């Protein structure tokens, strides 16, 4: 594969990941509404189907193996090149090696949870079609893994501003402790 092929593959994955994350946000927000009509539940089920389709794309084993191979060679260097200590925050900057390892591990976690998330999403979609309310969410660990990998892939593509936005989303979602085992308030 050429560098252009690698970049195009990474871009496709990043686009699918962003779609997954935003669909999950929209789905969750609408399913947190106090009263949903039957029509609202059917529409929410359709959003859930789109979310499930994006999950299948993002967790495609071939794509994740590609992301793992890129991360194996460039994760620590990518994180260090783009962010200063004040951007990552002191505990994360001091733990750059942990961040690089977590980047590589995140895709492995997504492969492990692939089938379980599909089962949960499918059950929620079926219940919504049956008029039974279900909360809409990917698991917090899966969401955080996708956010972490998305920030890394943006860095890999040289999209520092995009990576910074995804990193802010990662931190705002309380993912640092869940995914990295590093609390934001640790010194």
What report would you give on this structure?
This protein has one domain (3-180). The model has no long low-confidence stretch (mean pLDDT 84). The chain has 187 residues and is an all-alpha fold. The protein is elongated, with a radius of gyration of 17 Å. The protein is built from nine helices and no strands. The N and C termini lie far apart (42 Å). Helix 1 packs antiparallel against helix 2, helix 1 (3-31) packs antiparallel against helix 7 (140-156) and helix 6 (96-129) packs across helix 7 (140-156).
Question: Can you summarize the main beta sheet?
Answer: none
Radius of gyration (Å): 17 Å
Order of helices and strands: HHHHHHHHH
Overall average pLDDT:
84
- Shape label: elongated
User: In percent, how much strand structure appears in the residues?
Assistant: under 5%
**Any low-confidence stretches, pLDDT <50, length ≥5?**
none
E-strand count: 0
- How widely separated are the two ends? 42 Å
What is the tally of helical segments?
A: 9
- The percent of residues in helical segments reads over 70%
- Strand-pairing-aware structural class: mainly alpha
Q: Write down the domain tally.
A: 1
């Amino acid at each position: 594969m050429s560098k252009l092929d690698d970049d195009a593959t990474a871009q496709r994955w990043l686009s699918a990941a962003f779609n997954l994350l935003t669909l999950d946000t929209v789905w969750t927000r609408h399913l947190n509404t106090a009263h949903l009509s039957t029509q609202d539940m059917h529409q929410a089920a359709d959003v859930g189907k789109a979310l499930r389709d994006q999950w299948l794309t993002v967790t495609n084993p071939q794509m994740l193996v590609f992301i793992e191979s890129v991360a194996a060679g460039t994760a620590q260097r990518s994180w260090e090149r783009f962010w200063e200590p004040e951007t990552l925050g002191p505990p994360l900057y001091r733990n750059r090696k942990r961040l690089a390892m977590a980047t590589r591990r995140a895709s492995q976690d997504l492969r492990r949870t692939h089938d379980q998330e599909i089962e949960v999403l499918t059950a929620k979609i079926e219940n919504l079609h049956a008029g039974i309310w279900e909360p809409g969410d990917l698991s917090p660990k899966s969401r955080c893994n996708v956010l972490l990998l998305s920030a890394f892939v943006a860095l890999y593509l040289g999209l520092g501003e995009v990576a910074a936005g995804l990193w802010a989303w990662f931190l705002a979602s309380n993912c640092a402790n869940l995914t990295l085992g590093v609390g934001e308030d640790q010194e």
